Amino acid sequence: MDERTRPEPAPRETAPPTAERPTLTTHDPATGQPGRSYSGHTVEEAKGFARDAHAAWDGWRRTAFDVRAGKMRAAAAVLRRRQAEFAELMTAEMGKTHAEGLAEVEKCAVNCDYFAEHAEGFLARRPVDMGGPPNTARAFVTFNPIGVVLAVMPWNFPFWQVFRFAAPTLMAGDAAVLKHASNVPGCALAIEEVFREAGFPEGLFRTALIPGSAVRALIEDEHIAAVTLTGSVEAGRQVASAAGGVIKKCVLELGGSDAYLVLGDVDVEKAAGVAATARMVNGGQSCIAGKRFIVVREVREAFERALVAKMQAFQMGDPRDPTTRLGPMQSLEARDHIHAQVTKSIAAGARLLTGGVVPDRPGAWYPATVLTDVRSGMPAHDEEVFGPVAAVIEAAGEAEAIAIANASPYGLGSGVLTSDLARGERIAAEELEAGLSFVNAGVRSDPRLPFGGVKHSGYGRECSEFGIHEFVNIKSVLVQG
């Protein structure tokens, strides 16, 4: 995502830091009040973590799959046992609602179980038929671990984003060092605790509390083999440049401005329900949340009325209340940026149908908002709005709707809302320029499906068999008889 729309928050410091070791202080987005403080790490300490991880990897890569799987299932058990604790930690550090926090932890556990079950099969040797007389040559492809993977992760799904890469990476026989977003240090350290408590080798997974400015030095460290990043476009450019300079592979997930096509044959109420749910996941702070709803002309007004009603059901409330559907944004800075995008779009001709007013209360609150008459040149059209704001864009018909969807520089997720399933499947599979395209459903990540984008949404894949193959040496072996 563009750095202006999904920045990594700067560390909040309770006292002037030393040149090497900042103090990271969390702030509760619901109240703005400071929370717990953590002592950060120096660059040299982070390099030491990479060295330790590399040493642990040397034995881990030779560990049998059933042993790896046992420990990964143990990690899932730790997650489930400490589910409420971890959900509260996310609420305290980045404002996630209690219900969504519980669901996120369970999703991480499911992911651990999935790769514990399937990694061995995904990484099994694959024979290659070389032709010719029998018994003269035998060939196969093998998938070998490559070393320590550095993960640079964002705040919006502070557990899921990490486990999405960590479960397949560790099951592949690799090690990992995590550099998490600076506003979720407690989550970052808790994740390291999960793997330690599950019995993984000491040092195999380490968390480094370092600023973004220290990432290049870690990428260039000899003990780091590859890097995966979820973050802004600018962060992606910097990581890709640093990794390319030392010839190390990287996987980049840089977010998106997901388009949903709303075709003329839809059940408007059902379509609006899918759209509102897709827009409001995690308070709209999701790279694969629906953001642009491109509606054909004949159903636009009916869809707008239905969408407004569905969006208004997401009332702001205490994120610790299990019934709350919309908590605060992750920071005042993020909230103010969202509001600036809304007001600039209105000034350029968009119409506000609901929301769009900053509440007069402490905390980083912003209401569910719907804009219509959104056109090119407006922030709501051209940029990613990383919050609870739905943009309605009119199209004359299917062809124009597809063209508008594909005109974005992003290409992560997309959707088609239609009662004609064959039509929706054709558009989703063949027409939309995105890494994921769902018909009559909100786009989401799933351990079973490859996850990633095209264009400015990045490259490489996470999840599924495709994801576990990103950080292995895909090696050809031929044995001559």
Which helices and strands appear, and what pairs or packs with what?
Elements: E1 23-27, E2 34-39, H1 43-60, H2 65-81, H3 83-94, H4 98-122, E3 126-128, E4 137-145, E5 148-152, H5 160-171, E6 175-179, H6 185-197, E7 205-207, H7 215-219, E8 224-230, H8 233-245, E9 249-253, E10 258-262, H9 268-280, E11 290-296, H10 300-312, H11 332-347, E12 351-354, E13 369-372, H12 379-382, E14 389-395, H13 398-406, E15 410-411, E16 414-417, H14 421-431, E17 438-439, E18 454-455, E19 458-459, H15 464-468, E20 472-480
Parallel strand pairs: 5-6, 5-8, 6-7, 8-9, 10-11, 10-16, 11-14, 13-14, 16-17
Antiparallel strand pairs: 1-2, 3-4, 4-20, 9-19, 12-13, 15-18
Helix pairs in contact: 2-4, 3-4, 3-6, 4-5, 9-10
Fill in the keyword field for this structure.
Aldehyde Dehydrogenase, Chain A, domain 1, 2 domains, 481 residues, 6-stranded mixed beta sheet, 7-stranded mixed beta sheet, alpha/beta, globular, 15 helices, single chain, Aldehyde Dehydrogenase, Chain A, domain 2, disordered N terminus
Structure in words:
The protein has 481 residues and is an alpha/beta fold. It folds into 2 domains: 256 residues, Aldehyde Dehydrogenase, Chain A, domain 1 (3-Layer(aba) Sandwich), CATH 3.40.605; 189 residues, 3-Layer(aba) Sandwich (Aldehyde Dehydrogenase, Chain A, domain 2). It contains 15 helices and 20 strands. A 7-stranded mixed sheet has the order 12-13-14-11-10-16-17, sandwiched between helices. The protein has a 6-stranded mixed sheet with strand order 7-6-5-8-9-19, with helices on both faces. Strands 3-4-20 form a 3-stranded antiparallel sheet, with no helix packed on it. Helix 14 links the parallel strand 16 and strand 17. The N terminus is likely disordered.
